[in-house]
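Sample A.
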Amino acid sequence: MRHTYSCPLRWADMDMLAHVNNVTYIDYLQEARIDMLVNHAPVRGGEDLAEGVVVVRHEVDYLAPLTYRPDPVLVETWVTEVRAATFTMAYEVFDQHPDGTRTVYLRARSVLTPYVFAEERPRRLSVREREVLGVFLDEQTPPLRAPDVRRCAPLPEGGQSLSYDLHVRWSDVDAYGHVNNVKYFEYLQESRVAFLSTLREPGDAPVWVVVAGTDVDYLRPVLFRSRPYLVTSRIARLGRSSLTIASEIRDGQDPDAAVQARGEVTIVRFDRKAGTAVPFDDDHRARLAPLL
């Protein structure tokens, strides 16, 4: 079976384009997961899987802009795979119309593992937890990504890289002392804005972009501290109107510092008035080429 969560929108969820910000959707997914396993679970026994987990990977495809309105948006959640120590959840954020059709704003998939936070280690799923997850299991769901591209690769060799000092805020940390998985999307956004701003010349007209997809692999927990982490980014792919920025969050400035997470974000140049993608012009391509 699938679970449907009625998710309220907040005015603060909107970005400069008056759409729900790409980071905020990950909050919606987290709320929907908790609602499925705790608030409205058809059977008990999966409560620890709502918050007592760490995210191993997120795959997110943004399909249509969602604007503010007083009515909630719907989030459908279900399970696509249950293994010994991980489970995979799928999500669809949508509006249901009277004729039975849907406007889908986002599709996503998350790989999660139960975690013993007191001992800082993952654990296996219990028999009861596997039974609870089995209620929501739909193994026929097609994957978002092909098997050979389901993990973010290390930063590509060659090309210039741009670095961003990442300062963790106290409010970024969850009840278990780790930075919440949603915040990594915010960190990628902050580093991406800094990245793109370096490509602008004084007097340039704004170049508007929207996020088409984001993949994040969580490798080690990011913790609160005064010393910054380092986000290093390169352009992995450049298309006609899109580009993919590959990023690594490292433990510090040393090039051999441990990688905490990897992310790939695909953005599309966007015409605000027409509401359509537009190609990068020759000047943009000349500035992007050294970073490719």
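Sample B, a different protein:
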Amino acid sequence: MHKENSALKMSRNFPLNALRVFEAAARHASFTRAGDELGMTQTAVSYQIKLLEETLGETLFLRQPRQVVLSEAGERLAPKVAEGLAKLAEAVTDLRGATEQKLHIHSTPTFATQWLSRTLGDFQLKHPNIAVRLSTSQEVIDFAREEADISIRWGKGDWPGLECHRVMRMDFAPLLSPALAETIGGVREPADLLKLPIISAPDIWWPIWFSAAGIDNPGLERYPANELGVQTIDAQVAMNSQGVAILNPGHFRVEIAAGLLYQPFDITCNDGRDYWLAYPENRRNIVKIRAFREWILATMPKEA
């Protein structure tokens, strides 16, 4: 008799459905919410978890009043189960064909507004069978807990477990409207900027830039301590001649070309953080992720 395949033995004897229940319970930290997601009662969830624990000979959850908490063994198992189920889901998706592919992109608000919103139409023309969903926030998402396939992040590209490709340098320099510059007879030297309102004066980019421009004590504390938080808002304030903004010129090429903003000095700085395309290493060969990666790396401006 031939020896049975070990995977076949496992499928016959191992409670595979219990792994799906375990993953949901671990993600929600709740048997009740896991049941709601899976269409099961709390009792049925509890039974599946107990079955899995008996099979493994390990306690996976610590039952506490009104909550459940992963045990040490559960903490070790949870990410592996989530990864395995994700791979199964991806395999099924690939078999269904490109007509059902959906790509969820998570991005910082500024990159989404100033770049993706202007170029995603080209990606859609090249890949009409991939439906794109775009969500934005300043948060660094956890791929194990979020639905996103890929993320555009600001940082150093050194996130553990992620494959990262730099897509844009995050250089920064002061930008302002020509009309505002004219109110003081023009901006001829860096010190002239301090005669004008400074937008988001507490931004750490300002002292870095002024130091590079030869001004070590610009006195930024005398300006209102407003921090608008998003480059697109700072840029809108600057375009309305309300102050000087410290921005990434690469994001505002269109506005600069239109004469709405201008960069008075060639001095640009970089604090070591840039924009990166990031996704889990184990998903690098997924068709929709590979398609977006190849597109964005080919489409980004050469100077980025």
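Observation for Sample B: The radius of gyration is 26 Å.
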